[in-house]
Structure formats: C-alpha cells, structure tokens
Amino acid sequence: MSMHVSDIFWIKSIAGAGMSFIAKKCGIQLQPPSIILIYEDQLKNNIRKRIMPVRNFSKYSDCSRAAEQLKNNPRHKTYLEGISMEQLQKLHSLLKGHLGGQSLTESLKQLELEETIDPEENLNKLDDKELAKRKKIMDELFEKNRKKKDDPDFVYNVEVDFPQDKELDSCSWDAESDDEF
User: Fold this and answer.
1) Is the C-alpha dihedral spanning 85, 86, 91, 97 positive or negative?
2) Could you write out the DSSP letters of every residue in 4-54?
3) What gap in Å lies between CA 163 and CA 64, rounded to an integer?
4) CA distances (Å), origin 113, targets 36, 134, 163
C-alpha cells in the first residue's frame, strides 16, 4: 500500500532522556488508523519509523483508555517512553474525529476548544470529570505563565494600584447588618 504525505499528520517533536530510543516525531496515519513514531535508535545511531496500528478503535471509543493501552502494550512500551499520555490522547482523539466523519481541521479546532477555558462558563454546573479537566488546563496555564525566580524579568514584591474610575457598587447581601448573627 502506498502512503501519501497528506495521509499522515505530525503533531510535534519530542525528545526523551535516559533510554536507547529517542522519540523525534509522533503523528497519526488516517488510513489505516495508526500512530506513527519517528525515533532515533541510540545504540545503532540511526533514525527509524515505527507504525503502530490502532485496532478495535471506533468513533465511540474512549481516547484516554486507548492511549493508556497503547502506551502499556509490551510491543510498544519502550518506544513510547518519551511520549506523554496527553499527546497520545490527542492523537487518538484526532483519529476518533476522523472515524466520526470530521475533517482533520475540524478535529484540530475541536481539540483546541477542549483545551481552552471559557471565562463565561459556569464551572459549578460541570460534573466532576469535566471540572477536573478544566482545573488541569488552568493549572497548566498557570505554570506556563508563572514568573519564577530564575526568569530575567522576575520582580520581587510587585505592588499595583488599580484605578477606580467610579465608586464601587455595594451588593444587597453586603448591606445587611452583622446583628443577625
């Protein structure tokens, strides 16, 4: 079977440390559904490609479970050590979108939407699984934007005065007296 460049989607380069295989690129092949890994064999000092077919996977499958099964598969485990579980889940969700009839760009947009937080969304109405997902996204964003002591633009004890253009409105719950307690 011939493979076309348009049939393969690469997600990003990754490097693992402390193993004989270093992952360089990880992507998907849409037909047949497969995860493709470009890696460097440090013992033989050459670049190789590994195609891992995704079997028993449909548009109704759980992407996190499928990614975990692939990562723990004894045939692929040593090759996938440098690939994060999140990246494997993203690749599986792209395959799931393709199997569901979505184009690659639609699947990518959906992934991007799932990884962003809507500030107007009421998090109190989410179930525990979705809330944990949103909290994880917020934690990752916080860590990404956090200023560390080693950063060149780090400033200790920053004080900011916020302008007050108009007088603050008081809330009705704030107007009640403390005598009721």
Assistant:
1) positive
2) -GGGEEEEEE----SSSEEEEEEEEETTTTEEEEEEEETTTTEEEEEEEE-
3) 46
4) 25, 12, 34
pLDDT in tens, 84-137: 999 999 999 999 999 999 999 999 999 998 888 888 999 999 999 889 989 988
Calculate Rg over the CA atoms of the chain: 23
Structure tokens at 19: 């193993």
Sheet holding 8-13, edge to edge: 8-13, 21-29, 34-41, 46-53
Secondary structure in 3-state letters for 94-158: HHHHHHCCCCHHHHHHHHHHHCCCCCCCCHHHCCHHHHHHHHHHHHHHHHHHCCCCCCCCCCCCC
**Whole-number pLDDT of residue 148:** 86
Whole-structure pTM over 0.90, yes or no? Answer: no
Q: Which residues contact residue 99 at a Cβ distance below 8 angstroms, ignoring those fewer than 6 apart?
A: 33, 57, 58, 59
Distance in angstroms between the alpha carbons of the first and the last residue of the chain? 78
Q: In this structure, are strands 46-53 and 21-29 parallel, antiparallel, or unpaired?
A: unpaired
